[in-house]
Amino acid sequence: QVQLQESGGGLVQAGGSLRLSCVASGRSFSSLTMGWFRQAPGKEREFVAAIKWSGRVTQYADTLEGRFTISRDDALNTVYLQMDNLRAEDTAVYYCAASWTSTTTRDPLQYDYWGQGTQVTVSS
User: Could you tell me the pLDDT band of residue 121, with boundaries at 50, 70 and 90?
Assistant: First the structure.
């Protein structure tokens, strides 16, 4: 069993930055593929980024245009999402997820564990 806890959300002005963190408890964090998803009001949950257990393979949503960076620190059982040049359309609840798949994936059904989410609000 893996438990995930996100932090780092908040209110920021357009153009600003935030760094989200997700701490995992339980076994074998270094073997997990980690992902970030988000869900805006009235919309479906969408893929943001993922990082393979090795840390050397990452995947991003095409719409991000290079503004977000995912990383991980296996010594701290933590995955990060650095978000720069934030826009109003980035406003959403951001969820951390963990998967036992062998590579990165955009499919939320491939993720086995989910955090409770952290709110990110970008004011324009």
Answer: very high
